[in-house]
Amino acid sequence: MPEQLITLEHVTRTFMVKGQTIKAVNDINLTIPAGDVLCLVGESGCGKTTTGKMIAGLLPTSSGRILYRGKDIATLSGRERKDYRLGVQMVHQDPYASLNPTQTIYDMLAAPLQHHRFTRGEAETRRRVRDLLEIVDLTPPDDFLEKYPHQLSGGQRQRVSVARALTVQPKFIVADEAVSMVDVSIRISLLNMFTRLKQEMGVGVLLITHDLALAKYFAWEGRIGVMYLGRLMEIGPAREVVEHAQHPYTQVLLSAIPEADPEATRTKKHIELRSTDMPSLLHLPSGCTFHPRCPVFAGEVCERIVPPLEKANWGSDVACHLVHAHES
Amino acid sequence: MSEPILSVRDLSIIYEARRGQVQAVRNISFEVERGEAVALIGESGSGKTTVGLGLMRLLPATASIVGGSIVYRRYSNGSNSARRETEVLDLKGDNLRQFRWRECAMVFQSALNALNPVLRISEHFADTAKAHGYLSGYRQTKALRERSSQLLSMVRLDPERVWHSFPHELSGGMRQRVLIALSLLLEPQLLILDEPTTALDILTQRNIMDVLKELRAKLGFSMLFISHDLALAAELADRVATVYAGKIIEMGDVRTIFQRPYHPYTIGLIKAVPTLTSDKSSLVSVPGSPPDLIQLPTGCKFHPRCPLADERSQREEPELTEVEPGHHVACWHWPHAREALKSYRANS
Questions:
Q1: Which residue, B207, B242, B277, sits at the end of a domain?
Q2: What is the chain B residue with the closest CA to A209?
Q3: CB of B213 within 8 Å of any CB in chain A?
Q4: Which ipTM value was assigned to this complex?
């Protein structure tokens, strides 16, 4: 049994909007073993970014607990707290906004190394910065040390962001839409870089994305979790979730995605929703939150009872009354 | 067969920047037939949006069109010969204003910024009609309301709900559909759509794509898509042109481009996009990054990233040539590019 690096227990996060409370994340349970890859997918407003931020410690939970190596991150102090803060790093979506425009790449990477005493002295810091740039494929590193962010392309900046996260030798990286603002031709190489971090350094990754095809590629050996209106609808081995989707919401999403193949995309069957409007978080539907749009809506049970996330076929956990009714 | 509604010939557009001239569009030629949907695909900085802005004559002050021509032909319903032929680059004042929106309308990339936040949707329709002298006279208000409601229903919006709303009261997908309805108000022959589904959620994207298909079938206008999204092009376009470093490097029927591409960049781009069915091992990213449009490489602009580049690619830029009926490629190595790239990948 690998060590559980991160555990979410009944995690809920609420926000106040116009004097009303909305639940952005609603009772999420999740475990992520060390070195694991997990992709959270879903539409905007599903709570995937909020979940990522809570795991990275950038937002407190409203209720429920997040454990890092078995200990509640809200009550950590001293050494343990520092271990967690360094151990979980975040790479943000927009590489144009997340780097300080007035610092050179060297300054940016040297600061955390020196502050946290990972390196001593100028020579060692410089050596380590060069190594980090090589790890993220910014080669030769000497070409980048004295550059400013504006002199780099979007893909290169995102690599710098990753190198900066790596300065403090994290165990886990939360990457929020980390490749969606990068040119399509180089997305794959960025994702491959994350995969290498996992293989060579055992760094686990939570990739937050709206692109299921990308999630399948990246989480090939890992898992995909599908979120809708703050809840996990389905989570399982990446390829199974895409090839044998069980939750009606996952099936609808998959059927809606256009394919880069004229024949396949024009003959693809699209599952019709009962309603195209996404409900507001201010007025969450009762029972299963997907029931007003669900193509296989089964009446009262869906309207009244929140389906629990439970074991289903293909090694996945699914939150749907119908999926479980068929099995039993 | 009638003549195309749009013929772009050798269009070149530059931007003046502090570092020098940005060669955003270099000698681009293509046509859009009546009722046809053409997609310009390419990455950011390839010049594809500049082409769209150039067609509408909406370029910023730092840009100038340094060469080429854009011929636009207006047809009457049911007629096979053009009623009027216009050189878009010569249009001025009122004529230019009539061309925009009445003949050729553009749906811009960011639906949030394209609507005025202090105007209701009804006012957007009224302003557009007024500015372009559409449905003038005492019956205007009622006729406009009817026409607008019709268009809003066609894009699957509830006219009653949307008509008095402000843009911020609508979701991203709804705003995008309002813009599409608004762009069709003056019955243009050509609709230019710049990244129409980017930044929208999957189910919203699906909705917009279905709406565009329905509208085109009903109203018969032509479309020019500008997008980096290959899947959008695969689903909606009849013909596809790949743009790289300000130039069209491959163009052909949508099936030809996706199933039998010849240009190493097109081949690379298709291989770089994960699909739901693709196997992990079949995906390869294109090495390197897009070129600096101020200091372009010599010869073929793709040569620094191309595994097949040789001495000739570095020296001479290949022109777009028709290599089989309807399929145009600009590459010295097109006849064996696909085979060569396969073995190149197997060895690397």
A1: B242
A2: B201
A3: no
A4: 0.85
B79 and B225 co-located in one domain = yes
Contact B272 A258 (CB under 8 A): no
Instruction: Enter the tokens of residue A190.
Output: 């960025």
pTM equals 0.89
Residues in chain B closer than 8 A to A186 (CB atoms): 272, 285-286, 289
Kindly state whether residues B219 and B84 are assigned to the same domain.
Answer: yes
Predicted confidence (pLDDT) per residue in B166-186, tens digit: 999 888 888 989 999 999 998
Residue span of the structural domain in which B293 resides: 260-347
**Tokens describing residue A219:** 């989480």
Low-confidence ranges of chain A (pLDDT < 70): 1-2, 327-328
Cα R_g (chain A), whole angstroms: 21
A44 contact B CB<8A? yes
- Extract the runs of DSSP E, i.e. beta strands, from A168-229: 172-176, 204-209, 223-228
Q: For A4-102+148-327, CATH number?
A: 3.40.50.300
Q: Are residues B236 and B316 in the same domain?
A: no
Under a CB-based contact definition with an 8 Å cutoff, are residues B159 and B149 in contact?
yes
Count of A-B CB contacts under 8 Å: 120
Domain assignment of residue B286, yes or no: yes
For residue B275, the chain A residues in CB contact (below 8 A) are: 213, 259-261
CA B49, CA B52: separation in Å to the nearest integer? 5
Q: Where are the domains of chain A?
A: 4-102+148-327
Answer whether B272 sits within 8 Å of A256, measured CB to CB: no
Determine, yes or no, domain membership for B250: no
